[in-house]
């Protein structure tokens, strides 16, 4: 006897605006990765160094998102799960780097730190503005929005840390910002992982129904 089965809808044709937004965000983040990596090493700033890793992670995430546009819900959710794990991993890396910098005790160069922080903020505000329209999409879309939002928040904190370092000559403001950024990475990663797992389970349920 034939049974009534639900079927997962065919993958939606990739949204051209979302694809364009991803390409712009990818180029911006890859450029800022190199800027902050070099600048963070020069200024001895944990916050800038941590932010450069975040830029690199985001660039990789955007590239992966471009690769799976139009794929099934299961594979989009799987990629989002990997991105969520990456976001959380960067949070743990930042915590480790912050502890190492505290032991070293070398205060960052505030002027360089502040100038790069402002440049990074402009870059992330542009990315966040472009991706804002896709913030309520699936886990894959949500993850790229969260990446840019967290980065913009982190850059504001980096600027304030630079002001704090300049005023006190201490590395503590830099370390505090690095910890804040690690928390953003951990919480953002958890949110993406949670939704991605739910979407993967939903996709598996549909697949099982199709086999009835």
TrEMBL record:
Location of this chain's protein in the cell: Membrane
UniProt cross-references to Pfam families, sorted A to Z: Cation_efflux
Residue ranges of the TM segments: 21-43, 55-75, 87-104, 110-132, 152-169, 175-193
GO molecular function annotations of the record: zinc ion transmembrane transporter activity
Tree of life domain: Bacteria
Entry keyword set: Ion transport, Membrane, Transmembrane, Transmembrane helix, Transport, Zinc, Zinc transport
Membrane topology: Multi-pass membrane protein
Residues annotated as domain Cation efflux protein transmembrane: 22-198
GO cellular component: plasma membrane
This protein's name: Cation efflux protein transmembrane domain-containing protein
Organism: Acinetobacter tandoii DSM 14970 = CIP 107469
């Amino acid at each position: 006897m034939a049974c009534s089965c639900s079927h997962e809808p065919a993958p939606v044709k990739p949204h051209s605006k979302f694809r364009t937004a991803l390409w712009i965000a990818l180029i911006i983040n890859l450029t800022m990765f190199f800027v902050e990596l070099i600048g963070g090493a020069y200024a001895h700033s944990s916050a800038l160094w941590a932010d450069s890793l975040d830029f690199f992670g985001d660039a990789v995430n955007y590239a992966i998102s471009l690769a799976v546009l139009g794929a099934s819900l299961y594979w989009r959710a799987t990629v989002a799960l990997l991105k969520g794990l990456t976001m959380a991993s960067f949070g743990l890396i930042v915590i480790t780097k912050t502890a190492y910098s505290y032991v070293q005790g070398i205060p960052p160069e505030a002027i360089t730190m502040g100038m790069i922080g402002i440049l990074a903020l402009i870059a992330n505000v542009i990315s966040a503005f472009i991706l804002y329209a896709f913030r309520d999409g699936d886990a894959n879309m949500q993850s790229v929005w969260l990446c840019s939002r967290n980065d913009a928040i982190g850059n504001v904190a980096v600027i304030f840390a630079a002001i704090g370092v300049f005023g006190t000559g201490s590395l503590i403001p830099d370390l505090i910002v690095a910890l804040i950024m690690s928390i953003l990475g951990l919480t953002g990663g958890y949110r993406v992982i949670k939704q991605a797992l739910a979407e993967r389970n939903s996709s598996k349920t549909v697949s099982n129904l199709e086999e009835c």
